[in-house]
Amino acid sequence: FKYLARAYELETKWVEDGYAPTMEEYFSNGIATSTGTLLLASFAGMEKFAKVDAFDWLQANPRIAVASSIVGRLINDLASKRGHIGGALECYMKEFSLSKQDAIDEIYRRIDDGWKDINEEILRPTTVSMHLLVRILNITRSVDALYQDGEAFTHQQILKDEMELLYLNPIPVY
């Protein structure tokens, strides 16, 4: 959580200073302000699979965790239009002199690359439990679902119909 707090502090400094970060700076900080902290916290309570070495592995920013964080950050940026520090869309447009549509296309390309990285890491043999890798995959899927039709993390009404279908009116299984 210190990592997350420092990242938010940096965003605050950027806003106060009127500073527009480069894409590299934005991504570096965005890893902390997206789903990355959820990954570490989600391992708590998984004693059977998440030993100390698993936490050490995650804190070393493995490729799957970085990809999950980037996917989460970019999906959030497209849905919520993070105007307070520009967000990825504005950073791409400014740094590379891109049109809005070209910047959106580039962000979707980066999201696709992140999903490819996640899939490759899931399929690659690793020293950590597959249960932990699947946890990372599922958190990324959840973030994707939350922002699919808008910014449902803040505006939960967006998910109302889906939740009703899942929990109040589920399809009977025979």
UniProtKB/TrEMBL annotation:
Every Terpene synthase metal-binding domain range: 2-117
Lineage, top ranks: Eukaryota, Viridiplantae, Streptophyta, Embryophyta, Tracheophyta
GO BP of this protein: terpenoid biosynthetic process
CC cofactor: Mn(2+)
GO molecular function list: magnesium ion binding; terpene synthase activity
Entry keyword set: Lyase, Magnesium, Metal-binding
UniProt name for this protein: Terpene synthase metal-binding domain-containing protein
UniProt key word Magnesium: yes
Record carries keyword Lyase: yes
Classification via Pfam families: Terpene_synth_C
Source organism, top-level taxon: Eukaryota
